[in-house]
Amino acid sequence: SATSVTPSVATDVAISGQQLQSLRYGENPHQPAAWYQTGLVPTGWTAATKLQGKELSYNNLVDLEAARRIITEFSDNPAAVIIKHTNPCGVALGNTLFEAYEKAFHADPISAFGGIVALNHPIDISTATALTQTFLECVVAPECDQEARKILSAKSKVRILLLPDLQTGPQQMINVIAGGFLVQVPDNTVDTPDNWQVVTQKQPTPDELEELLFAWKVCKHVKSNAIVVTRDRTTLGVGAGQMNRVGSVKISLEQAGEKAKGGILASDGFFPFDDSVRTAAAAGITAIVQPGGSLRDNDSIQAANELGLVMVFTGIRHFLH
Fold first, then answer.
1. Are the beta carbons of 91 and 79 closer than 8 angstroms?
2. 175-229 confidence digits (pLDDT tens)
3. Of the four listed, 16, 165, 257, 269, which is most buried by Cβ atoms within 10 Å?
4. Span 54-69, pLDDT tens digits
């Protein structure tokens, strides 16, 4: 594990908040909803600056938080994330912010329509121009250049938010159930290949290892069962929220199509059988990253060796419900 001290949860938990604003409705028009601030000092989204756009909705805020969680995985290279219904439809790294956004958008342009965009660098002129080319609900970035603001103002309904501190999130996750609520520490594990185990005869190249890490970071934020196919630090296929892992594999590879050849496949949970490894190899996948931990791990390892794949076990699972 990347963390040496395991955080604990309190014996007694009290939740309090001050209503920041009433929302038009919740997930659906028939559900009343409101937005609350915790603590006296605004933090997180309550501290964000809204440059322009319509009032934020309940779904906007839920999706913005999902986008924030992914973008925090990428602090150095310019990165772009496009979210739909809390799942990423496009995530990419680039040499410039414009390149990162273009790669993320073209990963799945159909799903990107009406999406939520998170960027980890200030919005510049070229990125702002690209953002105005399609319908988007919200865009969040640490900052926005003055000239870029003028360009974005042409799309006055798009909600543009500035949040310099995209890194700091909640200290605990709360899920309300009948008769009480559940509390857990967020899945903030910093993933590093130093803790991984290469279980195949074939070893990953340094570039493959970087790609495996990129795919693994994205997969962590996709609803389980999650499968992510990537290449060139860009998502090519995202299989999200399927009731069986085989279904997620099929969706991600079908979406990637021919581009899957030479690509990487990440799985948020272990493969219980070797069928998914064989399906991935048939599509042209060259390396797989998964937690490991199945009683039948050896079947998957043997299949990977037989087919000449690289496979690494991370030793950590990233379920997301």
1. yes
2. 999 999 999 999 988 889 999 999 999 999 999 999 999 999 999 999 999 999 9
3. 269
4. 999 999 999 999 999 9
What percent of the chain is modeled with pLDDT above 90? 89
Report the CATH superfamily, name and number, of domain 18-162: AICAR transformylase, duplication domain (3.40.140.20)
Give me the count of residues in the chain: 321
Backbone angles phi and psi of 11, in degrees to 5: -70, -40
**Hey, how many other C-beta atoms are within 10 angstroms of the C-beta on 215?**
27
- Take residue 136 and report the two structure tokens written for it: 């988007």
CATH class of 193-313: alpha beta
Q: Which two tokens mark 240?
A: 């999200």
Start and end residues for every CATH 3.40.140.20 domain found in the chain: 18-162, 193-313
Q: What is the pLDDT of residues 13-52, one digit of tens each?
A: 888 999 999 999 999 999 999 999 999 999 999 999 999 9
Angle at 65 between CA 251 and CA 190, to 5 degrees: 75
Confidence of residue 1 (pLDDT cuts 50, 70, 90): very low
For residue 313, give every residue at least 6 positions away whose Cβ sits within 8 Å of its Cβ, in sequence order, or none: 196, 197, 199, 290, 291, 292, 293, 297
